[in-house]
């Protein structure tokens, strides 16, 4: 495995309160479907920001636009003032790491090896060095292992370092995904439904883990359906409905906003995104019925 102690990207922690991520007018269309529609979002250092919205609101698509998996149809994403390259590994090297809604671990590798893989954007040793295994390689590997073990200790998995990742319980696999993402030494961590499938105790522990990550100087942007988790955790919450940003504010502001409650309960409200389209469809259907009479 390619390992080294050198940091090859600009992942130094930013001063508290400086803008890290800036998404402007991000739109993503799939054929005729606009999954994300003109969304702006900023994340600053020291912040935990939540992204919520009903199923199909466009949250994961927006994440994919931020991490180079999708190239937005329109709009721009910058990290520390530089436009992000449209390649996931380059985005990681720039300082943004992520986890996935559906866990993506190397199931036949050990827990430790999974974290070591996560370090590859922060190493300068290449394939040949790994194959030839000279003294430099061994030194670098020892340092990488030490860093990986520190991360496993941080997420509470140090005693399982040599276990195969597929044998971990579900909640621990999620923790391992976070440790692997942290191994790339990000300035911003994106978490896509980190508590999905967890029991209340595991969810509470994940909340503490996210606070601890923030305290290490890493900003966090998190998608989650568990509202208690989001409102306990986040400094700011942004709500997407049908691809558009409906409202953004502190947990207190968002949870008492009647438009947010209506969006979750499925109650129509004035000015709802997609309202004009829905009215058009209704009118067309009514017209068709009239003609058929
Ligand atoms: N690759 C794709 N091709 C076509 N349509 C897509 C694609 N990815 C997502 N969509 C559509 O875009 C819309 C938004 O999906 P997305 O998964 O981003 O929503 P979400 O808010 O993350 O939902 P959930 O909370 O259920 O995960 C949905 O209508 C979905 O079917």
Structure description:
The chain has about 290 residues and is an alpha/beta fold. The chain has a single domain (about 20-255), classed as Rossmann fold (3-Layer(aba) Sandwich), CATH 3.40.50. It has eleven helices and ten strands. The chain has helices spanning about 60-65, 90-95, 110-120, 125-130, 135-155, 170-180, 200-215, 225-235, 250-255, 260-265, 275-290; strands at about 20-30, 35-45, 50, 75-80, 80-85, 95-100, 190, 220-225, 235-240, 245-250. Strand 7, helix 7 and strand 8 (about 220-225) form a beta-alpha-beta unit. The longest helix has 21 residues, at about 135-155. The termini are far apart. Adenosine-5'-triphosphate (ATP) binds near residues 55, 56, 58 and 61.
